[in-house]
Design brief:
The chain is of the alpha/beta class. It has 7 helices and 13 strands.
Length: 273
C-alpha cells in the first residue's frame, strides 16, 4: 500500500517521464521533419569524419612580430582551486580569421553572421605550381580548371588555396620564404581570382595555408583590400588542406565573437562524407 506522500511522488515522477518523452519526440521532430516544416531551403548535412584544419597555437608559432603570443599563469592547482591562464596574443596569429574590418570599414569579427561561417569547402590544389615558384598565385585559370572537373562553385562556398605551405610551419624562415634581403616569398590569391569569386560566384570566404591572403612578395595587399572591402572574410594559416577532398566537404569556422575585433584565432573544421 502506498502512502499519500509516496503516491504524490510517484505521480510527479510519472509526470516528469511523460514530459521527457514529449520533449524527446519534439526534438526528434526537429531533426526528422520534412523540409517544408523547416523551410524549403533548410540545409542538409551528413558526415562521417571530422578533419581539423587548425594549427596548434603556441609561443613559437611563426609571426613577423616578436612576443605575438604568450600565456601568463594566474592560478595553479593544487595551491589554488583552478588552473587558469591569461592569454596575450595578436589577433592575426595562428590559424585565424580576417574580419572585413581588418582592411575596411566593414563588419567587425563579432558581426559576421553565423550562417556565413560554414558552407561547401572548395579546395584548389596549386602545390605543383607552388613547389616550382614560391611566389605562385591562385588565378582565375585555376578556378576554371577546378570547375571543369567538379562543376560550378556552389553559393555560400569557402574557397581554399592548398599550396602545401603548412608543412613548413615548423621553420619560420621557410614558412615566410625569407630571402637574403629579408623579403617574403609564399603563395597567395591573385586579385583577379577573388574578383571572380566576388562578382561571378556567391562565395562567403576564402582560405590559405600561408600567413597571408596575398602572396608574400606583395607590398600593397590588393587581395586583402578588395576582398575584405566587399564585406567578406578570409582565413589564414589553415592546416591539412591536402587531406581534404577537392569538393564534397563542409567547412565550419569557430570564429571568435569579440566586440570590435578585426579577427582572431579560430578553430576550423572540415566535415567529410
Amino acid at each position: 500500500m502506498c502512502l499519500p506522500a509516496c503516491a504524490m511522488q510517484l505521480a510527479q515522477k510519472a509526470s516528469r517521464r511523460s514530459l521527457l518523452r514529449k520533449a524527446t519526440v519534439a526534438a526528434a521532430g526537429l531533426v526528422l521533419a520534412p523540409a517544408a516544416a523547416q523551410g524549403e531551403n533548410a540545409p542538409r548535412f551528413s558526415f562521417r569524419r571530422v578533419l581539423d584544419l587548425t594549427h596548434t597555437l603556441h609561443a613559437d608559432f611563426p609571426f613577423p612580430m616578436d612576443h605575438a603570443f604568450s600565456m601568463e599563469r594566474i592560478s595553479t592547482r593544487p595551491k589554488q582551486m583552478w588552473n587558469i591562464y591569461r592569454w596575450h596574443f595578436h589577433e592575426h596569429i595562428g590559424t585565424h580569421i580576417d574580419a572585413p574590418f581588418h582592411c575596411s570599414e566593414g563588419d567587425t569579427v563579432e558581426r559576421i553572421a553565423a550562417d556565413k561561417l560554414f558552407g561547401p569547402l572548395v579546395v584548389v590544389d596549386i602545390r605543383t605550381k607552388a613547389a616550382a615558384d614560391p611566389d605562385a598565385q591562385l588565378t582565375p585559370d585555376d578556378l576554371k580548371a577546378w570547375e571543369n572537373r567538379h562543376g560550378r562553385i556552389s553559393d555560400g562556398a569557402v574557397v581554399a588555396m592548398c599550396s602545401g605551405w603548412d608543412s613548413k610551419v615548423g621553420n619560420a624562415r621557410a614558412f615566410f620564404g625569407r630571402d637574403d634581403r629579408g623579403g617574403f616569398h609564399f603563395p597567395g590569391f591573385h586579385l583577379e581570382a577573388v574578383q571572380f569569386l566576388c562578382e561571378q560566384r556567391q562565395v562567403h570566404g576564402i582560405a590559405v595555408d600561408t600567413i597571408s591572403l596575398d602572396p608574400g612578395n606583395s607590398n600593397t595587399f590588393p587581395v586583402h583590400h578588395y576582398w575584405l572591402g566587399q564585406n567578406r572574410w578570409g582565413l589564414e594559416n589553415v592546416a591539412n588542406l591536402r587531406e581534404a577532398p577537392a569538393s564534397g566537404a563542409t567547412i565550419v569556422v569557430g570564429s571568435p565573437k569579440v566586440t570590435g575585433g578585426s579577427g582572431g584565432p579560430s578553430r576550423v573544421l572540415a566535415l567529410l562524407d
